[in-house]
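Board notes (copied after class):
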Amino acid sequence: MNELTAFNEQRAEIYWWLSSLLSAELTTEQLEQYGSFEVRTFLSNLAETPELSDSVNALIEKLNAVQGREDAQLELSADFCDAFLGSDKSSALPYASMYLDKSGLLNAKPAQDMREWLTKYNIAQKAEFNEPADHIAIELDFLGNLIVMTNQQVSEDEFEAYMSAQLTFINEQLLSWTPRFNEICIERDKFGFYAAVTGLLVTFLKLDVKFLAGE
């Protein structure tokens, strides 16, 4: 495995991790893992990237605060519901259609566009996650899979085409709405854990675009 393919694997893992955080409430077991040496080492290593340092440290700060709550898992689950599962007036709804389509309705053109990406690359949406295709967790899971598929390409031309597809996907399907999604999450997530997650997501996407564009 060369340095670039190893780096791609790390990128995929980060996107899958962020997808998992934004797909459902953390269980008690998952929350306990965030206090483990392995996870804290992962976060510390991520924070060593200067462009990510502030965002990662903000998340670590919120994780530390979570551990001090009396009913940590229940309260964080309530935060998840408040942040993402309310109405568009009270929550930061995690669907691209809510930000990119003038109708303001779910399953609009951005969801159709996402279904086309899934079909083009023969990547299946997880059957147990019954959400519109433009849910943030589905888009991030797709991106992780696209990165892994990139590493599987045999020719240099195919590899470069898949790297280019990643750049297009991030710009068109993610950075077109996640900054606003993060702003609303900051406004409506009073405790701030999920606002820290979406803040890190946007920061990482912007850094990843620079990497993919060769800047």
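Comment from the instructor: The mean pLDDT is 97. Residues 3-213 form a domain with the TorD-like fold (CATH 1.10.3480.10).
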